[in-house]
Amino acid sequence: MKPLINVRPINVDGFEVTQQVIPHKIAAYTFAFLMEGEVLVEVDQKSFLITAGQFILVPENSTILIRHFKACKGFDGYFCLDFLKDVSYPVLRSQQPVQQSFWFDDAVFVGALMNRMLIACQDKDKQFLQSGMDLLLSQIRTNNRVAAIPEKFLQLVFDREAVPLPVSEYAAKLNVTANYLNKTVKNHTHRTAIDWIEIARLNLAKQLLKDPAVPISEIAEKTGLEDQSYFSRFFKKKTGMTPSQYRNLK
């Protein structure tokens, strides 16, 4: 029988591309807290970037897909409402994922609490886990959401069915200028819009290169770089290998 709560460590070194991961739905509230790194998660087709010092709580029965993660350390897990002593917290009434940023001493405290809850899971210490969840949920505010423009931008950039576009075209779709888009995305994600487009382009290229039947010229076109030689230079700059060399490794 599946336990009513679980807390696990996150410790992923290096850079991973996860576009091939299948979306999954969990019949419980899920959460994650990062102490280092970044994760881009898609929840019910909306994108959320989680960085160091941030906690995210996802409502039960949400469809979750990890799009990108890099050098992550922290904790994740789930809990069922039946496990809690108190289900009156406002955050539990939200139908959308809720993010909370913790800074300095608060982040250290949350990290220590999550580590103690990890140990409590291993020890099956129900009393401490219930108290820990009460304390954690009391710190989360329902109005602490990522700004609308960066969220919509990330959703467009990591659309599995779309070719990555120039910044100007995303800006036009969002009815803002390219300069404003770059600025607001960087303010909220610590990367520029161009950075995220290149990450999405590289992720897509790596995924397509796994299929030897797809010509590299076609991959260049599908990643928004129709000039195959330019695509090859871009790929080698980012990975240290040509597309052909990367494909042969697989």
Describe the protein in words.
This protein is α+β, with helices and mostly antiparallel strands and 250 residues long. It has 2 domains: 134 residues, Regulatory protein AraC (Jelly Rolls); 102 residues, Homeodomain-like (Arc Repressor Mutant, subunit A), CATH 1.10.10.60. It is built from 9 helices and 7 strands. Strands 1, 2, 3, 4, 5, 6 and 7 form a 7-stranded antiparallel sheet that branches. Helix 1 runs antiparallel to helix 2. The longest helix is centred in the middle third of the chain and has 19 residues. It is elongated. The protein starts with a strand and ends with a helix.
Task: Provide a compact summary of the structure.
By secondary structure, the protein is of the alpha+beta class. About 2% of the residues have low confidence.
Show the helix and strand layout.
Layout: E1 5-17, E2 24-25, E3 29-43, E4 46-51, E5 54-58, E6 63-79, E7 98-101, H1 105-123, H2 126-138, H3 148-157, H4 167-173, H5 178-189, H6 193-209, H7 216-222, H8 228-239, H9 243-249
Helix pairs in contact: 1-2, 4-5, 6-7
What's the rounded overall pLDDT mean? 88
Count the beta strands. Answer: 7
- Could you state the order of secondary-structure elements as H and E? EEEEEEEHHHHHHHHH
Shape descriptor reads elongated
Measured by DSSP, the beta-strand proportion falls in: 15-25%
**Shape-level CATH architecture of the largest domain:** Sandwich
Which CATH class of the largest domain applies here? Mainly Beta
| First-last Cα distance | 38 Å
Major sheet details: 7 strands, antiparallel
Would you tell me which CATH topology of the largest domain applies? Jelly Rolls
- The total number of structural domains is 2
Which stretches of 5+ consecutive residues score pLDDT under 50?
15-20
